[in-house]
Amino acid sequence: MKIEVNLPEVIGKGYASFWKTKKRYRVLKGGRGSKKSATTALWFIYHIMKYPQANALVVRKTFNTHKDSTFAQLKWAAKRLGVFDKWRFTVNPLECTYIPTGQKILFRGFDDPLKLTSITVDVGFLCWVWLEEAYEIENEADFETLDESIRGEMPQGLWKQLTLTYNPWVNTHWTKSRFFDKVDPHAFTLTTTFRCNEFLDDADRRYIEELEYTNPDRYKVVGLGEYGIPGGTYFDEFRTDIHVIQPFVIPEHWRRYTTKDYGLDMLANYWIAVDPQGKAYVYKELYESNLIISAAAKRIAEVNGSDAIYQKFAPPDLWNRRQETGKSAAEIFMEYDEWLTQANNDRIQGWYNLKEWLAPYEDEQGIKTASLVIFKNCVNLIRTLPQLQCDEKDPNDVATEPHELTHAPDAIRYFVAGRPAPAIIKAKKKNSLPFALQTPEPKGDYHAW
Question: Where are the transmembrane segments (predicted)?
Fold first, then answer.
């Protein structure tokens, strides 16, 4: 059946790629009011009618939550598309039936696993699944069971697809490690916010916007669709839309630095360029484990290429002499032309400094930015920095566990310890000191040994 409707007008903006993808997994996380469920319901009603052999399944953790959520949303979608008279919506059994062909949208819950794994339809093929509020599914194995239920060959023109929609309440959820911490060629992922919902009323929009100032941790989930931190995050200044930027060619005259945290468990080495106004851009990342010092130095040289580095920061413990060699790690790095400057290791002051660098402000064009921003290719820094929590014993410090999260942020802390003041753009003032008391800026590399 041809549906006479203007889809862009009905759906609105922000979902074109979601609507078109045919990848096996379609993962949609978003904040409140980002029309995730509404758009998904529209997609299912529209595509059941477009493909006469297709049937669909909608799943939630608990079956009895469907009636007032997904079932009601699909009824709304049929009305929105102007095809409500072509559908039959029944409560017992809970089903949506497309009258001309008998195609169905079925409903199941994880609280009845037998019905979930033995799904049959009278006509056509079960090819599409919508897992609503996927964050409620705590065990990834349960998702695998659902995934396996979509089996068998599809006729030409149909495809198997699982759609997950949810608010990303906690960053420990399996959806993050499975779909967002790594690239899956079979998965399409999308994060949406209330700003892509032009149908949202002013009162709801105002409530979400106010959370940015009244409850920043909740705003990250509700407003920005980012994964939340159980118990709160240390760097509540961090926002993906402000601190993560597209890479660009670094001008040659900008001063470049490197900073590292080194151990056999992980080498986290970062390249940072500072513009003439003092704003820092983290532009390159090396994040590898099981590298002895000589191998680490070689990898740094490989990734560095021809970049002219002004100064290289490292933690003080690299200057401790090792019993097996009598040399410090810093000395061994030096033997491979990796000359280091010892950074201050005052943890609390270092974290305070980093919070200042990350504090958002508006530039001269009224655009929100920060004194330190990160190229999007530095994926491990972007992943770990916003996950750091406060130490339970000392809320002024960062928790050292999970240890894997600390390597990249520690490296950046050593950088800001070497340049502790965030960039504040001010008009230049004439130096009022007598000429004899003026200290010229050092030129070339210098090393603290």
Answer: none
Nearest partner of 78 among 36, 121, 49, judged by Cα? 49
CA atoms within 13 A on the CB side of 430: 3
Q: Which residues of 263-283 are buried (b: 16+ CB within 10 A; e: fewer)?
A: beebbbbbbbbbeeeebbbbb
Helices 36-50/72-80 angle, 10° precision: 70
Between CA 290 and CA 298, with CA 294 as vertex, the angle to 5 degrees is: 95
- The DSSP element (H or E) to which 132 belongs, if any, is strand 125-132
Distance CA 341, CA 258 (A): 10
Round to whole Å and give the CA distance between 372 and 238: 10
Domain boundary among 199, 222, 245: 222
116 close to 149: Cβ distance less than 8 angstroms? yes
The secondary structure of residue 178, as a DSSP letter, is I
DSSP 8-state symbol, 406: T
DSSP string, 187-231: EEEEEE-GGG-TT--HHHHHHHHHHHHH-HHHHHHHTT-PPP-TT
Q: Report how far residue 108's alpha carbon sits from residue 117's, in angstroms, rounded to the nearest whole number.
A: 10
* Interval 188-231: pLDDT, tens: 999 999 999 999 999 999 999 998 888 777 788 889 999 876 65
pLDDT in tens, 411-420: 999 999 876 4
Q: Is 251 helix (H, G, I), strand (E, B) or coil?
A: coil
- Whole-prediction pTM value? 0.57
Distance between CA atoms of residues 318 and 329, nearest Å: 5
Determine how many CB atoms are found less than 10 A away from the CB of residue 421. 11
100 neighbors 3 (Cβ within 8 angstroms): no
Give the closest residue to 178 by CA, choosing from 40, 29, 22.
29
Whether 88 and 131 share a structural domain: yes
Task: With respect to residue 167, please indicate whether it lies within any of the assigned structural domains.
Answer: yes
Residue among 87, 119, 115 at smallest CA distance from 101: 87
Determine contact, residues 261/407, Cβ cutoff 8 Å.
yes
Mention every residue, 6+ apart, whose C-beta is less than 8 A from residue 101.
Answer: 52, 123, 124
Cα angle value 304/309/315 (rounded, 5°): 90
**Parent domain of 76:** 23-222
Give the CATH number, domain containing residue 372.
Answer: 3.30.420.280
Question: What's the pLDDT tens digit per position in 296-340?
Answer: 999 999 999 999 999 999 999 999 987 667 789 999 999 999 999
Count the domains in the chain. Answer: 2
| Nearest C-alpha neighbor of 29 from the set 184, 190, 183, 185 | 190
- Asked if residues 1 and 49 have their Cβ atoms less than 8 Å apart, the reply is yes
